[in-house]
Amino acid sequence: MKCEICNEREAAIHISKGSGLTHQEQYLCEQCANQSMDINYNQTDNPFDIQTLLKMLAGNSKRNQTETEEHACPTCGATLQSIVKNGLFGCSHCYEYFERYVPEIVTRVQLNQQRHIGKIPSQAHDTLKLKRDIETLERTLQEKVKTQAFEEAAVIRDQIQELKDGGAHE
Amino acid sequence: MVGRMNRHTSTWIREAVNTEIEMSSRIRLARNIKGVPFTHVLEDDEDLEALGGLVAKMLPGYSLTSLGGLSVQDRALLVEKHLISPNFAKRGTRVFINGDEDISIMLGEEDHIRIQALGTNITLEALYDKAGAVDDTLEEKIEYAFDEQYGYLTACPTNIGTGMRASVMLHLPALAATNKIQRFHNNLTRFGFTLRGIYGEGSEPLGSVYQLSNQVTLGFEERVIINNLSELKNRLIEEERMARQHLMTLDTLDAVNRSLGILQHAYKLSLKEAAMHLSNVKLGLDLSYIELENFNFQEWFQLIQPAFVKERVNTEEYDSPGIAAESARAALMRELLGGK
């Protein structure tokens, strides 16, 4: 696909601007993207440079003169600006409060990963753990069916049922 | 238990078995308390103090060190021993350290709780088990900030998910001598890993010692991250071995022996210089160019660091503290390597 501005170079960057109400999408080459966003978006940059990323996001929101500047997380008082300044969220609630920005930040700094699949604290999340265990078993089940290991698949199916029954009693 | 600080190197590094290329490993877990703002937003010490009291009860075998009562020198020693981070040395409050000094729990780092397990001649899996056991103990009484999608919530989004950073120190003189190390670094970054200096973020590589660690903490199970890192580590070790084949020249033989000579006979050594010569001597040992008994690269690399050297400085002897330190560092090397 060609860049939507210069129409010459190949588009390499997908830009999504605005809020849910004024949404705008563009496919641009690196050079035109840099010019259009007033920041240097260089693909070879370290994707973990959180400061640059946050600045870019804050720049986007200013551009639209949206409501973000004064809005502060009700739990800790952090604003998008203070987050940019510190490179850190103010509290765990910020992840919910700034939910509009979080997916993009996470995607960038975590190399497109968006979902935790590791350890779960056992104390508060028994149900979540159960859900995860079932999901894992279901994935294994599908693999077994694919490779036609039906006997093993039957055992796993029973295990899943057992977990589901156990979960229902809780 | 409030402990007295051990001003010497930790047992695990003193007793490190001499290995080619691979040095120490570390697992770090980042955790925060549910409902409490992250450390940098906290207005007073109340929450961290309460947390300290709770941790002290849960981990009775650990000694508690309050950073407020420590001098700059003491803090620097803890950094050089890898028991606290440089960032924590500046702003941290309390650290719990076990008797063997291979597990430490920093309270009030960038995250409320940072658990780390470290050691040599131990797998990352085993270190993860150690750190995980502490984590399990703490979560019996502490409710962590956790989200179904983003996992353990941390102040910086680069740590969310598992909150786990695994790292391995590697001695890579042959790769460092060529531009290969930069190429590796660029490739690693693309796959969510990084290579940096020995004291972590922002620190300069010294004596060709690099720290390989994961950058991505979300979307993979802890053990998968550890496995991937271990595979990359093996790959780097293999590359370093191959690169060393091309280094077996008269120039290297000369450099190794010159370095040994300097360490045995110099009267002034800067950190950079001492690190470089130690690195050359280590390479010479690995290539069987020289033989030395009791050479402990990892421990000596720690002993030449500024705070450890300062422990040996006689400040009255010299006008400038810089020269006093360089002189003390050289004296240490002569002593360790049997020079005059």
Secondary structure blueprint with pairings:
The complex is a heterodimer of chains A (170) and B (340).
Chain A: E1 13-17, E2 24-28, H1 30-37, H2 50-63, H3 80-86, H4 94-97, H5 102-109, H6 126-146, H7 150-169
Antiparallel strand pairs in A: 1-2
Chain B: H1 11-14, E1 22-31, H2 46-58, E2 63-66, H3 72-80, H4 86-91, E3 94-97, E4 103-107, E5 113-119, H5 124-139, E6 146-147, E7 151-152, E8 164-171, H6 173-177, H7 180-190, E9 193-196, E10 209-214, H8 222-245, H9 250-265, H10 271-286, H11 297-303, H12 306-310, H13 321-336
Antiparallel strand pairs in B: 1-5, 1-8, 2-3, 3-4, 4-5, 6-7, 8-10, 9-10
Helix pairs in contact in B: 9-10
Q: Please, could you describe this protein's structure?
A:
Chain A: Pfam families: UVR (PF02151). Chain A: It comes from Jeotgalicoccus halotolerans. The complex is a heterodimer of chains A (170) and B (340). Chain A is mostly helical and 170 residues long. Chain A folds into three domains: 1-17 and 24-37, no CATH class; 71-117, no CATH class; 122-167. Chain A has seven helices and two strands; from the N terminus they run ββααααααα. Chain A has helices at 30-37, 50-63, 80-86, 94-97, 102-109, 126-146, 150-169, and strands spanning 13-17, 24-28. A two-stranded antiparallel sheet of chain A has the order 1-2. In chain A, β1 (13-17) and β2 (24-28) form a beta hairpin. In chain A, α2 runs antiparallel to α3 and α6 packs antiparallel against α7. The radius of gyration of chain A is 22 Å and the shape is flat. Chain A starts with 12 loop residues before the first strand and ends with a helix. Chain B is α+β, with helices and mostly antiparallel strands and 340 residues long. Chain B folds into two domains: 16-244, Glutamine synthetase/guanido kinase, catalytic domain (Creatine Kinase, Chain A, domain 2), CATH 3.30.590.10; 250-337, no CATH class. Chain B is built from 13 helices and ten strands. Chain B has helices at 11-14, 46-58, 72-80, 86-91, 124-139, 173-177, 180-190, 222-245, 250-265, 271-286, 297-303, 306-310, 321-336, and strands at residues 22-31, 63-66, 94-97, 103-107, 113-119, 146-147, 151-152, 164-171, 193-196, 209-214. The radius of gyration of chain B is 21 Å and the shape is globular. The mean pLDDT of chain B is 92. At the A-B interface, α5 of A face α5, β6 and β7 of B.
